[in-house]
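Dear Dr. H.,

I hope your travels went smoothly. While you were away I took the liberty of generating a structure for the chain from your last submission, since the lab meeting agenda had it listed for discussion. I wanted you to have the full record in hand beforehand rather than looking at slides cold. The sequence, exactly as received, is reproduced here:
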Amino acid sequence: MNTVKDFKAWDGMMIKFILKIGLGLVMLNSLLMSDPVIPKGDFNVKLIKMAGTPGEFINQKETFPRDYFLINNNLPFLLGLSLHHPMSSSLELSKKQIEIISKIKQKRMPYIIKNSQDIKLLELKLAQNIVRNTNTVKSQYELIDAISKLKTDLTKTHIQCINDVRDILTKEQYEKLLQYATKLVKTKNLKFKIDELVILPHPGKFIKMGRISVDKSIKQKIKKSVKKVYAPIFQGKMREAFDLEKKVQRMVKKGKTKHDLKDTLDEIAKLKREAMDSRIDALNKMQKLLTKEQWNKVNKFTYGAK
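The corresponding predicted structure, in token form, is as follows:
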């Protein structure tokens, strides 16, 4: 290659070669990958707007309305997967099936959105009452019960949606849809994942990291009167709730209805409520052991509290 002309000729051939390879990969990918039955479009953007401003103590990205179900990790969201999963067109749904599933979504979503918004407002009120205003546990029982009931009702609707989708699909379509749901869970590598009834601060971790300066005597008091007393209660209740959530998951897969699962769902709500009681007791105790400045720093460093 001795001239500019030779270089340009070689360069042109390489560009054509790269374009051919790229086109081949695109075609191969189109063969391997299916499309969603209905693209989501700007639906997620609309959900973010409906969710409103995240609470100041949320320590992860909010997934609205999913975060506000009683069981939001151990049950598949088949209604959305059947329509919007990137490979959902491979289910080969009939026009009639798509129409029926779409009508179910149109019917259920307004209720789900409204209840999730109500739950979020109540959770923010509870956080304000406990973290900022330091109310007692008993004074918040009515509020916690209201949150628990709304979350339980949402999960009953969720189970009804799963059964509705199952009734519409053939056995083969349903099994393939479950494979999509299972693959999503495996990619997230969830082993023990369960959400609390309400998200509240976990200030101890930054004290342990040394970002908040606490005297050794106070650390000992926290260990003795907070961690040893409340942690076993909280962890025990949440473990029981997790086991029941897995049970619900198995029962729903077998076709059990929300009426069949009522007692189990109520027990999960009860366990999470009892776990929340211990968390609030622990926070009240922790706040009494720390100075006002230390408590404000714990919230600021842990959750970006204003």
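Two observations you may find useful: Residues 1-33, 185-192 have pLDDT under 50 and may be disordered. Residues 95-132 form the longest helix (38 residues).

With kind regards,
E. W.
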